[in-house]
Amino acid sequence: MNDLNRLKNALKKSGSKPEKKTATPHSSSSGGRRTEMRVRPTGPILPPSNIQGNALMVVIAIMSFLACLTFGGVSMVRATASSWESQISREITIQIKPQDGLDMDAALKKARDLALTFVGTKQGTIMDDAATARLLEPWLGAGLDLKELPVPRLVIITIDEANPPDFAGMRDLLKAEVPQAFLDDHRTWVDRLVSMAHTTVLIGMSILILVFTAMILTVIFATRGALSGNRHIVEVLHFVGAESGFVASEFQKHFLKISLKGSAAGGALAALLFASASLWQSNSLATPQSDQATALFGTFTIDFFGYLGIVATMIVIALLTTLTARFTVMRTIDEIDLIRSDPGRSDGIPSS
Amino acid sequence: MLCKRIRRRQALPSARKDPSTLAVYERSSHRHPNTNALTLDVALIHFENVGLRYGMGPEILRDLTFDIPRRSFQFLTGPSGAGKTTLLRLLFMSLQPTRGLIRMFDRDLSQIPRAELPMLRRRVGIVFQDFRLLDHLTTYENVALPLRVRGKDEASYRTDVIELLKWVGLGERINVLPPVLSGGEKQRAAIARALMDRPEILLADEPTGNVDPPMARRLLNLFLELNRLGTAVVIATHDLGLMDQVDARRMILTEGRLDIYE
Ligand SMILES: Nc1ncnc2c1ncn2[C@@H]1O[C@H](COP(=O)(O)OP(=O)(O)OP(=O)(O)O)[C@@H](O)[C@H]1O
Ligand SMILES: [Mg+2]
Hints:
The structure holds two protein chains of two kinds. By secondary structure, chain A is an alpha+beta fold.
C-alpha cells in the first residue's frame, strides 16, 4: 500500500513531464477517487464447466453407481453367508428312512443315543410327529398322518462348534447299528455355500478393483485432456510465478468438484435402489416371490453399515479422483516445464 | 516491498562497454560510477558466452556476454526474428541456454534445482508481446493473479490491485473480461499484472506494439517511473521513436550477436 502510494505520487510528479500536454483519455491517478470498487467474487482459475467436465461427471457417476452396487451386493452376500455358516454348522441331522419292519421310534432313540456317545455332541432331539408334520406342511398340506406315509424322520444333534465330534466315526457306527440311518453333517452344503459366497465376494471385489482402475484411467485421461485444453492457463500461471504445486491444486479443486458431484449422484442412486428393494421386500413379506428372493439373497436390507459403506465408497472415489488428478498434473506440468525450458525440444511450444 | 529494497539512485555502468559508440558514453558519464563499493551485487543478471539454438536449427543467440545491473533501464532491439523474445525467455529462466553461464540474483542458474525456479521468477515481472491474459477472468482477477498464485488472501490485496489498475488507467475496466478490452487496454492490464508483485526486474516484450504514440509515451513514462523507484527494466522493442525519447542503454541483437550502447 505504502509502496503503491509512493509509486503513484512519483507518477504524479512525473506527470508534469512533457507528455502531460497530450491529454490521454486515461488520466491515470485521477485524484483520490476513493470509492471502493466492487469486484465479483473471485472465480476459479480454471473455467468451471465445459463439455469435457460434464462428460467426466457422468462417467464418474456411473462408475460410482456400479461401485456402490457392487459394494452393497458383496456386503449382502457376506452377511447371508456368515449367517448360513453359523446356523447350519451348529447342528447335524440324522435322517432315518422308514422301512418295512423297522421300529421307527426305537431306531430314532438308538441313533440319538449312539450319536450322543461321541465327544463334542451336546444334545439330541428327536423331531416328533407334530414337528415333522409342520416341516412337511408346505408340500403335503395340513392334517397329515405320518403313520401312513413313508416319511423319513430326523434326529437333530446339537454339536459343540469349538470341538466338533468325529463325523466319519459316527457315520460308520450308525451305518453298522442302524442301517437305515443317514448322517448329514451339512458339511457339503455349508462348504459349498460358503465357497460360493466367497467366490461371489471375490468376484465383487474384482469388479470393484476393475471399476476403480477404470475410473483412475478415465481421470488420468481427463486430466491430461484438461491440461492440454487449458494449456494457455498453465503457461500464464508459469509466467506469473506459480509453483507446480499451486497449479496442481487448482486442477485438483476442479476435479474434486466434478468427482464429488458425480460420485454423490451415483452413490445416491445406488442407495436409493437398495432402499427401494428392501422396501419392496418388507412390503411383500411372506409372498412367495419375496420368500424365494429372501431364500436366495437373504434380505435386501443393507444395514446402516452398508449405507456407511456407500458413503465411504463415494469418498474413496472423490479422493481417488483428486489424488489421480494431482499426480497426473504434477507429472504433466513437470513434462511441460522440461519441454518448455529445453530449446532442443521446444518445437510445439509457443515461443513468446 | 519496494521501499525495503536498497535504494541507490545511480544505476551503475554495465560490465561491457562498446568503445565504438561515443554518444553513449555521454549518457553513462552523467551517472556516478561507484563500482568499487558495489561490484558484487551490481548485476541482477549476468550472461557469459550464452548461446542458444532451437532444435537442430541455427544458433539464434551466440556468445552473449552482458550484465543487467540493478536499477538499470535498457532497450533491447533488433530486427524481427533476431531473438529478442528468446532472450527475454532466457532472462525469465523459462528457457535454458544451449551453452554458457547465466547468473541470476548472484546464483548460477544451472545449479538451481528446478523446484526453486518459481521462487526466483517471482522476482521478475514479464509482459508478453501477446499479453497472455486469461479470457475467463476479469481484468481485476488477471492483474491479481501473481498475488493469488503466491497464496495471498484476496482481501489483503484488493485495494492494491484496484489502485494499480487505476494507475495504469484501467479504473473503469476492472470487471471487464479481456476479450472486450482494446489492444492498448490489454497491454496495460498485462503490464499491471507484471508489476503487481513489485518485481526487481521488469521484462517487457513490445509493450508499445499496440498503442498510439501518446499512449506509448505514457507507458514509457510508467516504466521510467518504475525504474526510478528501483526496478530494473528491459524493454524489447523495434520502435525507434520510442527509444529516441529516452537516453537509455541499448542492447542491439543482430544475427545472434549482441551489441551494447551505453
Ligand atoms: N519454440 C521455438 N522453436 C523453434 N524456433 C523458434 C522458437 N521460438 C522462436 N524460434 C525462432 O527463433 C528466432 C527468434 O525468435 P524470437 O521470437 O526470439 O524473435 P524476436 O526478436 O522476438 O522477433 P519479433 O521482433 O518478431 O518478435 C526466430 O527465427 C524464430 O522462428
Ligand atoms: Mg518477439
